[in-house]
């Protein structure tokens, strides 16, 4: 019974991770805004920034992985590999979030030493969408961290007794 | 005998991680350059950029952790915790590298859409030092990934047979 509860808990976590990373991918892909300053029209989208593109690609990969893992039969030998795969997936996700967050921070606050001006004043909607995508990605990363620590605990537990 | 070889291999890896993260910390802290353009004098240092500061702090934390772990007695019960700690440390490291790399990329190439100009033309020495720090941090992250996959393998191996 305890094993069954644990399995349901894991599946729920993986569903949450899937939802979070799919949302992050979609919100990032649809982030786009056109703003006009004087007589010029400016167009921003996520694909202009390599870090945001990387974030989107990473989230898409993690979404596919999260989906595939749901169809893995409970008795499959492949589950032994999943712990290692989870670690790699979580690292990809954290790397994507950190890179996108670093750039989003410059977009919000600018960096006066480098002469980079903030752009969120002009592109309010775009900035909000990127923030949303980052938050969704962050939830995905936290869920994967919990899954990994849970796996490590489950594997070590019989050895601890 | 195989166990002894494995232990030496792990200690060597941890020494390498220590060396890499200490180097990354020191190279990042000492990155500093003054350049004059027309009659103005510009001063760049790592602490002007939050992402570089974060990278330095993360590497300092990982250095301390890598050093402490070397003094943990081989029979200590704490070794069971080390797998989980290694995962968290590796994630911190990858997060720091990704954030710093995203900013370093803008420093090198700029982002014409956001109007952020590259600064590496003026600050050649600074850029090279940041690149060096990133490379050292990257080596540290790879070593931690190997350590984690090795631990997972070692723990799962008896279960696989």
TrEMBL record, chains A, B:
Main location: membrane
Alphabetical keyword list: Cell membrane, Membrane, Signal, Transmembrane, Transmembrane helix
Pfam families xrefs: CASP_dom
Annotated family: Belongs to the Casparian strip membrane proteins (CASP) family.
InterPro entries in UniProt: CASP/CASPL, CASP_dom, CASPL
SUBUNIT field: Homodimer and heterodimers.
Species this protein is from: Stephania japonica
Membrane topology classification: Multi-pass membrane protein
UniProt-recorded name of the protein: CASP-like protein
Compartment annotation: Cell membrane
Transmembrane segments: 51-72, 84-107, 133-156
GO cellular component terms listed in the entry, alphabetical order: plasma membrane
Record-annotated Casparian strip membrane protein domain positions: 7-142
């Amino acid at each position: 019974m305890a094993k069954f509860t644990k399995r349901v808990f894991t599946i729920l976590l993986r569903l949450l991770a899937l939802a979070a990373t799919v949302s992050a991918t979609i919100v990032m892909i649809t982030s786009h805004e056109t703003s006009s300053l004087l007589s010029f029209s400016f167009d921003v989208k996520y694909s202009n920034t390599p870090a945001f593109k990387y974030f989107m690609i990473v989230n898409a990969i993690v979404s596919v992985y999260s989906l595939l893992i749901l169809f893995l039969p409970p008795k499959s030998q492949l589950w032994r590999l999943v712990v290692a795969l989870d670690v790699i997936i979580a690292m990809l996700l954290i790397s994507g979030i950190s890179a996108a967050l670093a750039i989003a921070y410059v977009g919000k606050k600018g960096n006066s030493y480098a002469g980079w001006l903030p752009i969120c004043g002009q592109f309010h909607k775009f900035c909000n969408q990127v923030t949303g995508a980052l938050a969704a990605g962050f939830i995905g990363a936290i869920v994967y961290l919990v899954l990994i620590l849970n796996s490590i605990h489950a594997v070590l537990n019989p050895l601890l007794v």
